[in-house]
Amino acid sequence: MARITLDNLAHSYSPNPKKEADYALKELNHVWNDGEAYALLGASGCGKSTLLNIISGLLQPSQGRILFGDSDVTFAPTTDRNIAQVFQFPVVYDTMTVRQNLAFPLRNRGERPAYIASRVQAIAAMIGMEAQLDRKAQGLTADAKQKISLGRGMVREDVNALLFDEPLTVIDPHMKWELRTQLKSLHREFGHTMIYVTHDQTEALTFADKVVVMHEGRVVQMGTPEELFERPEHTFVGYFIGSPGMNIIPARVEGNQAYINGSQLSLAEAYTGLSGNVAIGVRPDYARLSETDGLPVNIRRVEDVGRHKIIRADFFGTDISIIAREDETISPDMNRVTFDPAHINVYHDDWRVQGEAA
């Protein structure tokens, strides 16, 4: 297991990068703690896989260093980094049985036969393939092959890190939930440093101790699921995390008041010196419809999604969402909205601003 340090790390696929836009991975300076589970989360093309491949040694960065513990592994080959990596699409040996595939990394390291048999049996149970251990991998379905690939990545107990690059893409939805649960169980039992790349927020939030949100080649926030939900440090985090995402509403902010199209809204904290691109951000969970209180809103439609209702509305020209309880009645007279001041974030140039006690 290893602490992973990203020191002044950046990467460009251009041979002569001259400006920031030339970098697929903007400069990073982060320390990822030994034994924690991280998820790299972001939209396609944001730099997740580039960063993972630099960590694994499949790609050398254009600048900076990567350290495992105190060892600089920036130019070390993958074989010297003592990691296991599971890719998006299954990589298995078709001529081998499931048992032989799972045992392959252990046999390569000369482990004792009894230990190999024990680990293979445990991993087969974890991925639900005990009944297929003696079947050739050739002819198995894509999701079965990916389970083998996943199991082979998890079979070693002595790795510095386990890296997963969207490993559940070809797995059926029910099995995805089971495997995520098993991965968390594996992490609790053995304490491996785990890094899991995904564009699926549910996978990220249910798997990781800390989620690393990436946007346009940059890490915009690293935090717990609660931190990402309650205090998004960037408007992209607010938009990307949550379903529906955070409402981002252009505003003028002075002291502990926000002004939206001439209307006034109280804030829990005070802010000074904000001008230009300023907005407030509030989760749909902290917005409430009312017949008498709050600011005017125009309801466009109500979506009943079973657990709750999502109200889509126009708020001074900005589309917003409001979440109501499943048993809550939405009447035609409810044409005003209130926001919980304690859960309103303020943003300047898309970055969250820390206020002062009002």
Automatic annotation (TrEMBL):
Pfam family name, one: ABC_tran
Residue ranges annotated for the ABC transporter domain, each copy included: 4-241
GO cellular component entries: ATP-binding cassette (ABC) transporter complex, substrate-binding subunit-containing
One Gene Ontology term of the molecular function aspect: ATP binding
Highest taxon above the source species: Bacteria
Keywords for the protein's UniProt record, in alphabetical order: ATP-binding, Cell membrane, Membrane, Nucleotide-binding, Transport
TM stretches of this protein: none
Subcellular location: Cell inner membrane
Primary location class: membrane
PROSITE patterns, A to Z: ABC_TRANSPORTER_2
Membrane topology, from the record: Peripheral membrane protein
Family matches, as PANTHER family: ABC TRANSPORTER ATP-BINDING PROTEIN (PTHR43875:SF14), MALTODEXTRIN IMPORT ATP-BINDING PROTEIN MSMX (PTHR43875)
Family indicated by similarity: Belongs to the ABC transporter superfamily.
Protein name: ABC transporter ATP-binding protein
